[in-house]
Design goal:
By secondary structure, the protein is mainly α. The protein is built from seven helices and four strands; from the N terminus they run ββαααααααββ. Helix content is about 70%, strand content about 5%. Strands 1-2 form a two-stranded antiparallel sheet. It has a two-stranded antiparallel sheet with strand order 3-4. The radius of gyration is 22 Å and the shape is globular. It starts with 5 loop residues before the first strand and ends with a strand.
């Protein structure tokens, strides 16, 4: 029997399945393209704005967070439960930190994003290992995620401060993030479409 282009519906009996198509990919597999979209947006910012403007963006975001914190505090004053007070105070403090030290916040943000990209790429490498010998596009998937992991590691180890010392690297990393973001979106869909596994009710097996 040929490989079926179906996937089990989440939370439903195994005999109910949905077709693997782009619409269902967008609708049900959002976790697969969150990181690629973040990479794409961050890459565009790197290319267009460079490091010093990132500080400005962090400062503006900090002011917005402070205003939101004050508004939340005032508007919910009559319902000043500990949770509400904590939430409003946290938003205000985050905004204040962003305004007082935007460079540190930008560095921290890039470290977090770099770590997320790295972990996502490593997970994808492990997941896609099951495609080895079963997909003629395995090498593309492997190379894309290996380079993505390296870029994520660079962002984690050497964030904005280091990149600013060699300014052209902002453009290089930015271009890589844009290209890799697009490729990750493509490979995410292709891996989903090819169908790694299907639960046949007795266990998880390769689709044949």
């Amino acid at each position: 029997m040929g490989r079926q282009n179906l996937i089990e519906k989440k939370g439903e009996p195994s005999n109910l399945q949905r077709e693997k198509n782009f619409t269902n990919f967008v609708k049900f597999e959002s976790k697969r393209y969150v990181i690629p979209f973040i990479m794409l947006i961050l890459g565009i910012l790197f290319i267009l704005l460079k490091g010093n403007v990132l500080d400005v963006l962090v400062t503006v975001l900090g002011v917005i967070l402070m205003i939101i914190g004050v508004i939340l505090g005032l508007s919910l004053m009559n319902n000043s439960s500990p949770l509400v007070i904590f939430g409003a105070s946290t938003v205000f403090i985050l905004g204040l930190i962003s305004v007082v030290n935007p460079g540190w916040v930008a560095n921290f943000f890039l470290k977090v994003v770099g770590l997320c990209i790295l972990l996502n790429a490593v997970i994808r490498l492990v997941v896609e290992h099951s495609l080895k010998g079963k997909s003629d596009k395995y090498n593309i998937y492997f190379i894309t995620d290996l380079v993505t992991a390296v870029v994520g590691l660079l962002l984690f180890l050497f964030p904005k401060t280091w990149l600013e010392s060699v300014s052209f690297l902002f453009y290089v990393i930015g271009i890589l993030l844009v290209v890799l973001g697009i490729f990750n979106l493509y490979t995410s869909y292709k891996v989903y479409k090819e169908g790694r596994y299907v639960n046949d009710g007795t266990g998880v097996v390769w689709e044949e």
